[in-house]
Design a protein that fits this description.
The chain is an all-alpha fold. The protein has 2 helices and no strands.
Amino acid sequence: MKDVPREIHLRQIAHFRHADPEYGAGVAAALGSKMAEAPGIKAA
């Protein structure tokens, strides 16, 4: 996902987080994103 726009990263993180919170958090960490940046995700 290196060449994928950040907007798509964030959207995918939100989908992953919805399906499996731990997986979504892992993907976010691997991509260097904060969960709060993903649409539909509230800051903890």
